[in-house]
Amino acid sequence: xxxxxxxTLPTRNARTPTVYGAWERFVRGEDDIAGVRPEVALSWHRCxxxxxxxxxxxxxxxxxxxxxxxxxxxxxxxxxxxxAASVVNEVAGIGGVVTVADATGRVLAEWGNKDTxxxxxxxxxxxxxxxxxxxxxxxxxxxxxxxxxPVVIRGPEHWCEAFHDWNCAGVAVRDVVxxxxxxxxxxxxxRSELPKAAGAWLSNxxxxxxxxxRRRARDAGAELIAAYNHARSNAAVSLAAVDPSGRVVxxxxxxxxxxxxxxxxxxxxPAERWNPGxxxxxxxxxxxxxQAASNPDWVGSTQIHTHLSDxxxxxxxxxxxQFGHLVGDIVVFGASDGEQMPRGEQGVGVPERGxxxxxxxxxxxxMVLLRPPEVAFAESDGSDVWLSTDEGxxxxxxxxxxxxxxxxxxxxxxxxxxxxxxxxxxxxEVERGFKGELALVMDDAARTMVxxxxxxxxxxxxxxxx
Length: 466
Prior knowledge:
The chain is an alpha+beta fold and 466 residues long. It has 3 domains: 12-195, Beta-Lactamase, CATH 3.30.450.40; 235-340, Beta-Lactamase; 359-464, CATH 2.40.50.1020. The protein has 11 helices and 21 strands. It has a 7-stranded antiparallel beta sheet. The chain has a 6-stranded mixed beta sheet with strand order 7-6-10-9-8-11, sandwiched between helices. Strand 9 (313-322) and strand 10 form a beta hairpin. The longest helix is centred in the middle third of the chain and has 36 residues, at 198-233. It is globular, with a radius of gyration of 23 Å. It starts with 16 loop residues before the first helix and ends with a helix. Mean pLDDT is 85; it is low at 1-15 and 350-355.
């Protein structure tokens, strides 16, 4: 079962004048956020500087009605609805309401105390209204969708002053393959404390739902492997099977070299799949997914850069379905079958031009923008990610190591262990153990030794030319 961290319910100090005073200064444009929890501070930054949400907003806007989602998402909505219904009496008894919203923050259903629901209606905390951070600022549902950990937002931690009388706890359920949010479950109380069991209940509901998604993802991986074996038996070309996020489920010998992953090693479980770190491949499979959604028989071709050569390689993309649900693609190397995908400066198979990505970190009360070369490695520690940088050890704005891996995969960073993503250019030494295990000595001030997991060792050796 997926391990979903329980949210820690903060004490009443979140409602003291310290937080409200910081909020007043921050909405005026100051950056002094002393006394504010880091996850809340980061949310405020998003609301003010990226989304530009009006802190004087008094109600949530109407949600966009035309929202696309897969049948897989309907399974999650039904599961969360069942979990919410099972505790609605307990939550209503302490004056709370329970809501389920989709990945856009659109509330789908609400249950709970009648009086509290009346207060909620004044703020549009009700079905068909949007509670994403970009629409309504810092709140339990919207902020949970922005992070990988459960969140609690109390009183003046809400971005909009009209919601300062609310206490909320939310947890997002994420797709186990893409890591993108699917839905969010939330408990809200008006002018009263959250129930003591809120953290445990939210974590349990999310864990059970994630378990269902993981089981279905393993089945989809098995289907991809079967499609790969079938294609391999009928063709003399090089093949790989990738999931909808571009992670490799299985590849033959030549494809393994091109993608920089172990060959002929099936990985039906999403947690065991390999990320080749090729942005062009990711863009290609995403484009293929959009085309296959309207035409299941669609086949396309493009060129992608691989780890073997500076010249692009021609590939053909063939979507694979299971019970009408897209589970991934068969990538055929050296083939040009089907529709030619868009190319050029913004083509799906060629590297995008533009400025290099920035890594966002926090230090005390300020945001720190780092260039990738300034980061030696990223380390996951519980629900946090820490960066070893030229400016010292900083907490990453993103709590997800997977997200950092995706963002930096095309800039020389590589996942070497479930807890570490390293900058290949910042490796000073490689230490070999008696049984062939590897450890990387980084060039940070502490000369940190980063372990390499056994399953990632072949990729690391290949990347370093060992």
